[in-house]
Amino acid sequence: MQKNTLKKLGQQLKAVADPTRIKILAMLSRRSLCVCEITFALGLAQPTVSRHLRQLENTGFVSSQREGSWIIYRLAPADEFCRKELELVLARALETRECNGLFKILEGLDRRMISSCNRQSLSKTDKP
Q: Minimal CB count within 10 Å: which of 1, 5, 22, 75?
């Protein structure tokens, strides 16, 4: 194995070693999501979620595509190793109570509603 290949392998393993990124992968295994939906479900700040998504995208586990004003993320293993690693991680993660709780949150989630609520709360904080 070449040095670059080992470095890439290490980055991929590190990407799926983080509990937050595992939760994101589990949610994306159910459906494609925008950052605002993931942020809402996890209760994390948008920059934090974006940083995790960027790492998952850079290591070949997810892809993104702009749809109107949203950037939609979906599972998209870049190679056979990513696909197999994703299968192993998700096989365990999908059995957890924590992921099942996230799936329940996602069931009634609508990105248009979240975006609307975010705009309203921002406009309220702008007022003195």
A: 1
Model pTM greater than 0.90?
no
φ, ψ (nearest 5 deg) of residue 59: -95, 0
Show the domains of the chain with their CATH numbers.
Answer: 3-126 (1.10.10.10)
Is residue 73 within 8 A of residue 53, CB to CB? The reply is yes
86-114 in b/e burial notation, b at 16+ Cβ within 10 A?
beebbeebeeeeebeebeeebeebebeeb
- Could you read off the pLDDT of 41-71 as tens digits, one per residue? 999 999 999 999 999 999 999 999 999 888 9
What CA–CA distance (Å, rounded) separates 66 from 103? 23
- Identify whether the C-beta of residue 122 lies closer than 8 Å to the C-beta of residue 46: no
